Amino acid sequence: MSYRFAIAALAATTAIAFAGPASATDLEVTHWWTSGGEAAAVAEFAKAFDATGNKWVDGASAGSGGTARPIMISRITGGDPMGATQFNHGRQAEELVEAGLMRDLTDIATKGKWTEVVRPKSLLDSCTIDGKIYCVPVNIHSWQWLWLSNEAFAKAGVPVPNTWDELVAAAPALEKAGIVPLAVGGQPWQASGAFDVLMAAVGGTDTFLKVYKDKDAEFAKGPEVAKVFKAADDARKMAKGTNVQDWNQATNMVITGKAGGQIMGDWAQGEFQVAGKEAGKDYSCLPGLGLNPVIATGGDAFYFPLLKDEAKSKAQEVLAETMLAPATQVAFNLKKGSLPVRGDVDLQTANDCMKKGLDILAKGSVMPWTDQLLSQDTQKQKEDLFSEFFANEGMTVEDAQKRFADIIASAD
Amino acid sequence: MREKLVRSAGEGRIRADKTAPPKASPMTDDQTRPPGRLLRNLNAKIASLPMILTATVVFLGGTIWTVVYSFTNSKLLPRLKFVGLEQYERLWAAPRWLVSIENLAIYGVLSLVFSLVIGFLLAALLDQKIRFENTFRTIFLYPFALSFIVTGLVWQWLLNPDHGIQSVVRGLGWESFDFDPLYNSKIVIYGILIAALWQGTGLVMCLMLAGLRGIDEDIWKAARVDGIPIWRTYVFIVIPMLRPVLVTTLVIIASSIVKVYDLVVAQTSGGPGIASEVPAKYVYDYMFHAQNLGQGFAASTMMLLSVAIVMVPWAYLEFGRRRRA
Questions:
Q1: CB contact, 8 Å: A249 with chain B?
Q2: What 3-state class would DSSP assign to A85?
Q3: N or C: which end of chain A has fewer CB within 10 A?
Q4: Which domains does chain A have, with CATH numbers?
Q5: Which of chain B's residues have a Cβ under 8 Å away from the Cβ of A245?
């Protein structure tokens, strides 16, 4: 009798244990999407994940990736991992993967045929280490955009530029009208990113790859890169008087017509949308600064730390699948202003700027970005250099180029 | 009763005290003392055990660990692959580190001098038996209740040229008035200094005031009888008597100078450019943002070294001399 009872009890507990994953599992997801447009986009992920019967626990860190990543990394290395976390795919999480702290997603990827649906292929390559897939790319973000305020140019009485050079030429007229020609916020990554964009646009794709991929220090000292520094010098002169820190405050200057333009990734588009502005009418966008329309395949990806909890591990799989599902991809990317990672989704409602991006992507004009090519250490040194260069007019172009070449020489 | 207390406080002092009554001779002392040095004051020793453990394991152990790993090429995760002095060579070649050191020196010297001078002046003024002293004391001490982050944000707004002091003064009619320390690389460190002084002088004032209140009224009377002017009484009699308070204040200010980080982050995040960077921020940024632990450890070891260079001679003079006396 008691033997039977024990069997029954055992069966009952097993049943409960198996029933677990089907019921709601809380999964904490950390990310640094906190500006208006970003928050709206991430809410789409949460909605889709909650619809699968699980619960998205939002772990947003304000202050952009530079502030958020150290917190995420110390949580993972300190033994308090979250369910899933955002990184820019590429080399940011490299060592965490090598240390065996991240979950191998190869099985889920094979099941979902990721290698076939994800486009361009380089996205998945950035998630792959030693033949295994460790992250889910969720969007394509390219840095190489120039956002322009049509209102500001109308006020200054000059036509809206079609290239970077035209913006430089229009700068005096803008300044006369009391408008800052180019908004560059004070956060170090903004100056560094703007320089990389100039490198890709003014210097061209080959120059960019020679410096950042081959890490050719001699070339970085040479005349090709000197041209880029000349453009950066123009940029810092135009950026004088920006007086804001965060990138979205700088974007807001363009939205309100206080600044002529901003070099910023396509995430800025989300801000224009939240402000109710219309592409082509209120603002214009120039991919590749109008000089070199190529899109970098940087972006965001989600990594899943290795967890012991079975129910949570199961929920991780569900989340990974949900993020790549066509419907979620469309809803998320429309809000975010980024491009979907699947080639087989329909973006009918995409606006002018996104369509420009999709066209370039369809043509296959893509290139890797610094997140994929350089280590965080090198990136930080670059940030130090360019934040100083943009803020300190006493620093000569030659001096800056020499220091830049030194960084490239020791880059890894 | 009092006798017993004095004795347990340490026999050395009793022996040195020539006026001690004969009852406290070494003979009787030995009889009343529990056997063995280790067991003396056992309760106190047990009570301080957790702190001793913390100090050795966390502070000393952590310090040694950090110094050892500063000679490795640890990136995101610590690993024991020694590279000699490479991290230090890179550190001292980095323009940002040099700027940080320079800033810390300017900020350190000025904040030490100004907070002591202003703090003492405020305390001396409050000590004149003025009316509403409590109110004033509260007002002056209140900023100290705010964290550096809040202080930094408040002063970031006040010093912002577009909606801070500059725009208010310009609004009053002085169109050419320029006051934007946080956006001028050359003077940005002074903008941070202003905020730090606003926050910290209240505490210095309170400490000084407590010291001044501890000075015997008779000394003032004696000085007045001798016809010594008030300022001379302060400079030559009162300030030397405040020495213990001054030392405490100095240690508190100095430690807050070396670890200044949050104020800079809130006010300028190191900008414009790298003009207001400080060593503690370099350590944090390279350890976590740049994922280069080795570089961060090397920088923090240099910070420790600089503190040690100041503290060791001072401690030697302060405590070494007393032992010899």
A1: no
A2: strand
A3: N
A4: 22-141+297-363 (3.40.190.10), 145-296+374-409 (3.40.190.10)
A5: 269, 271
DSSP one-letter code for A324? H
**Least confidently predicted of A27-31, A117-121, B94-98:** A117-121
Confirm whether B35 is domain-assigned: no
Does A192 lie at the interface with B, CB-CB under 8 angstroms?
no
As beta bridge partners, residue A85 has: A30, A303
- Location of structure tokens 């889910």: A136
Nearest beta carbon to residue B273 from set A77, A92, A387:
A387
The secondary structure of B85-135 as a DSSP string is THHHHHHHH-HHHHHHHHHHHHHHHHHHHHHHHHHHHHHHHHTTT-TTHHH
pLDDT at A112 over 70: yes
Structure tokens belonging to residue A122: 């380089």
pLDDT tens-digit map of B155-170: 988 998 888 888 889 8
Identify the contact set of chain B against chain A, taking CB-CB distances under 8 A: 75-77, 90, 94-96, 160-162, 183, 185, 268-275, 284-292, 295
The complex scores an ipTM of 0.77
- Please name the residue ranges forming H helices in B172-292: 188-213, 217-225, 230-232, 239-241, 243-258, 262-267, 279-284
Peptide bond into B26 cis (omega under 30): no
Q: Which of B108, B153, B103, B106 is nearest to B276 (CA)?
A: B103
Q: What's the first-to-final CA gap in chain A, in angstroms?
A: 70
Contact B75 A95 (CB under 8 A): yes
- Measure the CA–CA gap between B291 and B270, rounded to whole angstroms: 19
Determine the Cα angle at A98 with ends A95 and A101, to 5°.
Answer: 90
Residue B318 makes CB contacts below 8 A (sequence gap 6+) with: B247
A384 in Cβ contact with B100 (< 8 Å) = no
The letter for the amino acid at B282 is Y
Give the residue from chain A lying closest to B273, CA to CA.
Answer: A388
B25-65 per-position pLDDT tens digit = 444 444 555 556 777 888 888 999 999 999 899 999 999 99
Q: How many domains in chain B?
A: 1
Q: Which of A290, A266, A197 is nearest to A235 (CA)?
A: A197
Question: A390 in contact with B at a CB cutoff of 8 Å?
Answer: yes
Q: Is residue B20 part of a domain?
A: no
Residue of chain B whose Cα is closest to the Cα of A98: B77
Q: Are B86 and B219 in contact (CB under 8 A)?
A: no
What is the CATH number for B180?
A: 1.10.3720.10
Q: Is A380 on the interface with B (CB under 8 A)?
A: yes
Q: Is position B80 within any domain?
A: no
Query: What is the residue whose two structure tokens read 């007229």?
Result: A173
Whether B236 maps to a domain, the answer reads: yes
